[in-house]
Design a protein that fits this description.
The chain has 114 residues and is mainly α. It has one domain. The chain is built from two helices and no strands. It starts with a helix and ends with a helix.
Length: 114
């Protein structure tokens, strides 16, 4: 009976020794999962960096376009103001001289009855 116990013990020891590579396989799978997690994290950071860069570029282009539009509108507004001012002065002068001519003509007509 002792012989059976010794043989059984040796057999179990052999099985235990052969079972050790299994944890190594589990470690490899575990390490693969860790590596996959790191790769995913790295990809997410890279994508976020690209999104940030694109957003900054869009912001800068919008800001630049807004400034350009402001300056062009400002210049066009000044031009329109000056043209309106000039046209108003011209119309005022013509109206003034026409009105003065009408008044003077009315005075002349009043002095010389026909």
């Amino acid at each position: 009976m002792q012989l059976h116990v010794i043989v059984l013990g040796a057999l179990l020891a052999g099985v235990a020794a052969s079972a050790q590579p299994l944890p190594a396989a589990q470690d490899t799978a575990k390490q693969d999962m860790k590596d996959a997690g790191r790769d995913t994290k790295s990809a997410a950071k890279s994508a976020a960096h690209g999104t940030k860069k694109g957003t900054e570029t869009a912001y800068d282009k919008t800001k630049s376009g807004t400034r350009t539009a402001y300056h062009k509108t400002k210049g066009a507004t000044k031009t329109a103001y000056n043209k309106t001012k000039s046209g108003t002065k011209k119309a005022y002068s013509k109206t003034k001289s026409t009105t003065k001519g009408a008044v003077d003509g009315g005075k002349e007509g009043a002095r010389q009855p026909q």
